[in-house]
Task: inverse folding
């Protein structure tokens, strides 16, 4: 048993540093419209809706609010709340709902504005109580702890990690919408960027932006005769929330997620034409490369030196620049790895197309390497 | 080194369940939950034991000894109140009893694997269980 569905339309709003006066609902609507136009379907075909949490204007009743705003009356609606893994997590849930016969065509949409306003709701969870009082606020410190642990265990170097940021910036030069288009960065420039939380430098950390991403998922039958990418396998795993509770600092829940996704697809990682790997920080790519089996634990640095990660390279990696090059549109950042994979598999990645792209590995990651979703997508069902 | 007691930083958000932990911390002691059913310690404190879901557990005094699993020198703090103390160290402390807690590390140059000992420290007007090299 494996999930089967077609990703038939994608829509992306260009990342922006600020969106004065914009509403998240409005941005979701524009991304949804772009995805529908791309799919060639009529709006009336949409009968399922998956949305992210914390939609700016509406902390609760999110599917109903988004559905009403879009003039939809879906027969399946839900929130997927897996941080950066929410986008990929929507895709297999859409397929499962379609295979269960509950709906046929699902709009998966996620995004956020960036307006000056009060911070999110008051937080009383264990991280707020047991981490923040010691001086550990925000994700940067958690991923700094993960990077430090990798360096201490394996002797990996800052140069190894800087290569990941360098390649993200390099690929962003082929992506005009990317926030770092026009701003490549050499390894030396990455290392010269200020330390934010050692050993993480500024250029190893995503730039927060506004944005929205939408994907339309439908049955393989409905996709017949249209340009689509196909879901071939999926895996998910949640291990913890606070970094202090992580069962392992140098391997994460993406490892079992990818194992499951590859097993369902019947494919190995060596068959992938594109690695669309969640990259909130350089350490996340390093750990994912090792967890995927592309290189032994601790050896990502040698792997980064041995390969070309551009669209014409031997291992195309995050051809849209990744979030390190494109910008991180909040929770929609994870969905950019899906929309880029769909564009590559359908041959519509203008100016950065991978020749004869057949299969893509997509990963999503949330919280402190806590929530993981892996997808294997293909150009054929 | 900045006097941490003068920082204007967010303190613990204790609830009835976690009050004994912070009360002990204020007295310079470290206590962690220990499950009566499966005989294992855990951290942070929870309503039920995360290992076996038993609801009967006791506070036990921890040795205050630990080992540094990882750390970060924070140059750009996530909360502005910490800015006067930057750069400062936070780290993951593997307590001798087993559980891991995040804490403030009183060292300008921590090293992964170093042995640590409890160092009750006034941070922002409250004594918290920080650690220092043993
Ligand atoms: Zn127990």
Result:
């Amino acid at each position: 048993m494996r999930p089967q569905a077609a990703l038939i339309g994608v829509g992306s709003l260009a990342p922006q540093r600020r969106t004065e006066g914009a509403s998240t609902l409005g941005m979701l609507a524009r991304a949804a419209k772009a995805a529908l136009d791309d799919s060639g379907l009529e709006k009336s075909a949409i009968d399922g809706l998956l949305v992210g949490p914390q939609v700016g204007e509406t902390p609760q009743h999110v599917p109903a609010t988004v559905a009403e705003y879009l003039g939809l009356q879906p027969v399946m609606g839900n929130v997927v709340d897996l941080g950066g893994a929410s986008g990929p997590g929507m895709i297999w849930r859409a397929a499962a709902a379609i295979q269960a016969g509950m709906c046929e065509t699902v709009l998966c949409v996620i995004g956020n504005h960036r307006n000056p306003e009060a911070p999110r709701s008051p937080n009383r969870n264990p991280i707020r109580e047991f981490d923040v009082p010691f001086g550990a606020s925000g994700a940067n410190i958690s991923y700094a702890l993960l990077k430090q642990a990798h360096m201490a265990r394996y002797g990996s170097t800052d140069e190894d990690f800087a290569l990941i940021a360098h390649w993200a910036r390099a690929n962003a030069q082929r992506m005009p919408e990317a926030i770092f288009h026009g701003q490549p960065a050499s390894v030396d420039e990455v290392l010269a960027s200020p330390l934010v939380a050692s050993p993480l430098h500024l250029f190893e950390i995503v730039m927060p932006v506004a944005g929205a991403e939408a994907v339309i998922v439908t049955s393989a039958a409905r996709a017949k005769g249209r340009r689509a990418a196909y879901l071939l396998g999926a895996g998910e795993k949640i291990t913890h929330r606070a970094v202090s509770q992580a069962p392992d600092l140098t391997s994460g829940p993406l490892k079992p997620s990818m194992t499951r996704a590859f097993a369902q697809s019947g494919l190995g990682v060596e068959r992938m034409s594109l690695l669309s790997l969640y990259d909130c920080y350089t350490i996340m790519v390093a750990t994912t490369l090792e967890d995927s089996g592309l290189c032994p634990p601790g050896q990502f640095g040698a792997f980064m030196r041995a390969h070309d990660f551009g669209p014409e390279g031997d291992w195309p990696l995050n051809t849209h620049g990744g979030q390190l090059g494109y910008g991180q549109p909040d929770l929609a950042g994870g969905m950019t790895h899906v929309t880029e994979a769909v564009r590559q598999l359908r041959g519509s990645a203008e100016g950065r197309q991978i020749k004869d792209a057949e299969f893509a590995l997509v990963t999503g990651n949330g919280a402190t390497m806590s929530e993981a979703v892996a997808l294997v997508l293909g150009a054929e069902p | 080194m900045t006097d941490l007691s003068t920082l204007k930083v967010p303190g613990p958000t204790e609830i009835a369940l976690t009050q004994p932990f912070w009360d002990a911390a204020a007295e310079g002691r470290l206590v962690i939950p220990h499950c009566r059913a499966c005989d294992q310690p855990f951290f942070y404190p929870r309503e039920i034991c995360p290992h076996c879901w038993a609801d009967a557990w006791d506070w036990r005094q921890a040795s205050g000894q630990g080992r540094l699993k990882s750390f970060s020198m924070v140059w750009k703090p996530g909360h502005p109140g910490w800015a006067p103390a930057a750069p400062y160290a936070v780290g993951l402390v593997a307590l001798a009893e087993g559980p891991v807690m995040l804490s403030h590390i009183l060292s300008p140059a921590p090293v992964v694997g170093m042995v640590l000992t409890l160092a009750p420290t006034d941070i922002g007007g409250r004594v918290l269980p920080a650690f220092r090299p043993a």
Observations:
- The pocket of zinc ion is lined by residues B 35, 37-38, 40, 49, 51-52, 54 (CB under 6 Å).
- Chain A touches chain B through 33 residues (CB under 8 Å).
- Chain A has two domains: 24-124, 139-378.
